[in-house]
Q: What sequence folds into this?
């Protein structure tokens, strides 16, 4: 899968770099001074690079943990996010990463311990803080390569009052199944109806496989999160969500669900413009969208229809675990 | 469209013959072309390569979706004479600046770090391919196109066992000839990617009809293009020009087209 690996000079001797390189013995290894030399140049096309993304092994120096954007929470007062990776192996057409980064290459920051130190500093200020992984990447998709979750879960074992969310579409759950479940960890799956997933979530595991992974995790005692975000407009999408909810709640027990969130497709305007330029033939971006306070989202009429979906959802779950996302 | 830059006429000749390129200009640069390829002979050195690439971009109409390929010879300590490689990293020895041509082409070609030097290297201290053009070419071409479409292909002409002093024009031609199959596979890959980008920039159907028959300001014509493009995706069978006959002014046409999106939710 990975044919090219760029290696920052600063981490060329890092044990984790060597471990990761060992998993790709045939990959071409290219040294670089800083990952930005490869990742940040202007003249890059995300869409072309997505055909064959390279892996970049790098060191992160600062901004390990950032405050989560407002409205990005599951009941906590102090919300932070961190990203041990930039970009994702999946190719979901609605994903804001396409507009955020010029490059589709996958960056992995191998100095996990520095993330943990930064998280510890936040925990010293707020023991009950919530930490979200999987904002600039998928938390688990490259787990067999990075083993980041394994490392961060060890860390959170010692901080039981703080909550860790691993946001994913992946079925790479072996490392989770091997260990005792952490009660302060939420494995949150992003879900869309099967029809939408097939059209827009290229390379991601099918809905069926995600549900199967969720089922295995709940049987082991892991807390699950359900993330219906973004909700994408399709003809008969109310019916599609009705079926999706039935499907999920036949398999997943309510008592194993930590939280549920739901929100419409929405993007900051500048990211939307870049994504539209990359995929001008994409129906999702051609549709009736409008700007509300710098965000591009569906028109007001859609919010009413979204409310109906939320009502359908609330027939299955208590309101106390429901966290709607707004534009 | 693919733009090829070579430093020497000896590098260019086998390509001119292989692609049946016709001479279209002699001064200030020799330029050859066919339907899909432009080739320019830049002269030796990174500055010449930089200038020639910029010149060719202007000469060919400034299309930003073109593929760019620098083809030339270089020295390497160990690699065999005649071995061809794409650049995966280009370093300018004088400035220390690096470029990393993205490796997305589906080709069997190997790749190397290239060190662009001011004078012919004879000691080959590092295990890299030494050349004199790549950094200049890459800097210029990647300002004219996206970097995935900009590549350098170098053929080893000299090494520790075969001095650069022995490299003749006939040998250079022969080295390029030996690598034509590989070069062609790279050209084809670049052409494919370039065409993919051209398709994305294609005008929406009916745009010309609107612009020819009704008056739009420049800003309005951009708005019209985007509206027709989006509507064409949502309603591929619809003929919009037939439906705007009742609109007298350009503003009314744009408003009418914008209103069509409302029907998507019903």
A:
């Amino acid at each position: 899968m990975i044919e090219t690996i760029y290696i920052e000079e600063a981490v060329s001797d890092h044990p984790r770099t060597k471990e990761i390189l060992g998993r790709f013995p045939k990959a071409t290894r290219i040294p670089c001074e800083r990952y930005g030399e490869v990742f940040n140049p202007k003249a890059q096309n995300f869409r072309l690079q997505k055909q064959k993304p390279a892996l970049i092994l790098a060191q992160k120096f600062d901004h390990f943990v950032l405050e989560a954007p407002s409205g990005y929470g599951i009941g906590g007062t102090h919300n932070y996010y961190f990203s041990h990776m930039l970009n994702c192996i999946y190719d979901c057409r609605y994903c804001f990463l396409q507009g955020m980064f010029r490059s589709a290459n996958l960056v992995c920051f191998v100095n996990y311990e520095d993330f943990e130190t930064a998280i510890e500093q936040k925990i010293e200020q707020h023991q009950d803080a919530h930490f979200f992984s999987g904002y600039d990447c998928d938390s688990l998709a490259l787990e067999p390569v990075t083993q980041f979750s394994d490392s961060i879960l060890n860390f959170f074992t010692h901080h039981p009052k703080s909550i860790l969310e691993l946001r994913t579409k992946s079925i790479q759950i072996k490392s989770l199944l091997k260990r005792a479940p952490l009660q302060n960890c939420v494995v949150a799956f992003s879900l869309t109806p099967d029809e939408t997933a097939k059209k827009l979530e290229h390379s991601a595991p099918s809905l069926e496989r995600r549900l199967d992974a969720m089922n295995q995790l709940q049987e082991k005692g892991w807390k699950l999160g359900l993330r219906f975000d973004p909700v994408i407009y399709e003809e008969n999408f109310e019916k599609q969500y009705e079926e999706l909810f039935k499907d999920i709640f036949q398999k997943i027990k309510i008592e194993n669900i930590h939280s549920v969130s739901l929100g419409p497709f929405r993007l900051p305007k500048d990211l939307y413009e870049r994504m539209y330029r990359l995929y001008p033939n994409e129906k999702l971006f051609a549709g009736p969208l409008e700007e509300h306070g710098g965000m591009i989202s569906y028109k007001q009429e859609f919010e009413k229809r979204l409310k109906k979906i939320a009502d359908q959802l609330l027939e299955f779950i208590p309101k106390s675990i429901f966290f709607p996302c707004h534009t | 469209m693919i733009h090829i830059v070579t430093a020497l006429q000896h590098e260019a000749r086998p390509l001119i013959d292989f692609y049946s390129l016709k001479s279209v200009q002699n001064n200030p640069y020799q330029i050859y072309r066919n339907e899909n390829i432009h080739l320019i002979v830049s002269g030796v050195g990174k500055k010449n390569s930089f200038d020639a690439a910029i010149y060719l971009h202007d000469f060919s109409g400034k299309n930003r979706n073109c593929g760019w390929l620098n083809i030339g010879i270089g020295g390497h300590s160990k690699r065999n004479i005649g071995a061809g490689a794409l650049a995966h990293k280009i370093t300018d020895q004088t400035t220390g600046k690096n470029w990393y041509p993205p490796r997305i082409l589906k080709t069997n070609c190997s790749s190397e770090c290239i060190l662009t030097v001011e004078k012919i290297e004879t000691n080959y201290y590092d295990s890299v391919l030494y050349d004199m053009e790549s950094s200049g070419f890459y800097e210029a071409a990647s300002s004219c196109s996206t970097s995935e479409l900009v590549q350098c292909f170098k053929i080893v002409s000299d090494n520790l066992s075969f001095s650069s002093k022995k490299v003749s024009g006939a040998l250079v031609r022969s080295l390029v000839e030996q690598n034509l199959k590989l070069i062609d596979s790279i050209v084809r890959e670049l052409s494919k990617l370039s065409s993919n980008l051209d398709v994305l920039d294609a005008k929406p159907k009916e745009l010309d009809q609107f612009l020819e028959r009704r008056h739009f300001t420049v800003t309005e014509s951009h708005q019209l293009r985007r509206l027709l493009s989006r509507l064409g995706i949502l309603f591929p069978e619809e003929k919009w020009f037939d439906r705007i006959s009742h609109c007298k002014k350009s503003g009314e046409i744009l408003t009418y087209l914008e209103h069509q999106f409302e029907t998507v939710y019903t």
